[in-house]
Amino acid sequence: MAAAVFNQASGIVQPHGCLNKSSNHLELGSVSFRFSQKVLNFEASRSIRGTRASELRNSSATRVSAQAPVLDPVIIPAKSDSTEPKKKSGEAALILIRHGESLWNEKNLFTGCVDVPLTNKGIEEAIHAGQRISNIPVDMIFTSALIRAQMTAMLAMTQHRCKKVPIILHDESEQARLWSKIFSEDTKEQSIPVVTAWQLNERMYGELQGLNKQETAERYGKEQVHEWRRSYDIPPPNGESLEMCAERAVAYFKDQIEPQLLAGKNVMIAAHGNSLRSIIMYLDKLTSQEVISLELSTGVPMLYIFKEGKFIRRGSPSAPTDVGVYAYTKSLAKYRQKLDEMFL
Predict the structure, then answer these.
(1) Which of 16, 27, 91, 99 is catalytic?
(2) Which residue of 56, 86, 93, 268 has the smallest Cβ count within 10 Å?
(3) Is 128 annotated in the active site?
(4) Lowest mean pLDDT among 82-96, 189-203, 226-240, 264-278
(5) In whole angstroms, what is the distance from residue 236 CA to residue 110 CA?
(6) Is residue 202 flagged as an active site residue?
(7) pTM assigned to the model
(8) pLDDT tens-digit profile of 170-204?
(9) If residue 229 lies in a helix (H) or strand (E), which one and from where to where?
């Protein structure tokens, strides 16, 4: 139910996604879930510098005791029945966006997990990406913990026709939860929750981070650098291989994002080349050889439809009025039609 729940018997279309409102519950837009209290076991969430590749590979995808973000009490009050998203039949939209050009991309430096912002070109790419998806429903957003991915998500949503405001959820402490609480029900209904997760970060490039790519190739040899960058299971010195990045990114996707899609929530993920390649490897069932040749353009959204437990790739909308994308499902077409009626 990416854009609406279509009742074939009655022909009734119930708006969903950015259009859904509720006056009986403290909901954030159409999102009426709470994250599971399940604790994710990780030992190094933010800094794994100095950790050897062999230790990273054997550390169960770098374990940290980091609790999954909980919306209560910031957005949604505790519920006495179930904390898990309820399963619904139908379909949901999944949008993947690789962040726009960063300042270190521009300088041809290995960036990895260094937190670098977007260039002016990257800002333009994020805005253009938002224009492409401006008629596709978004109920919640997941980004990495890095500013370039968060900027991309926020800038993209400034172009969305639903006019809802993306709000980053803060669950670092009780104080953070209380201080970021929203007290207006109308404001909550016009907001979209944004969850940040280090598991969606770019691959950690270890001792290559901050080095110039051309100079590194001259120092170590083009073949060695190519192996570090494009092999599946060979990490750079004290860094992560694509395989190691995939372990954390895909595990997070299965545990935190897929349940929202099963519940009928429309999700956008703004992340990085390697974390998104890892997720696409899972979605498209690619082999380790196929994924290393997968190239993702910056600032170009990719749309999937999640239906009956399967992910169907629908490519990238070339424009908000692209008929082809909205013809894929009745839900997307109905959602766009509803936006037209509201804002034209």
Answers:
(1) 99
(2) 86
(3) no
(4) 82-96
(5) 11
(6) yes
(7) 0.74
(8) 989 999 999 999 999 999 999 999 999 999 999 99
(9) helix 222-230
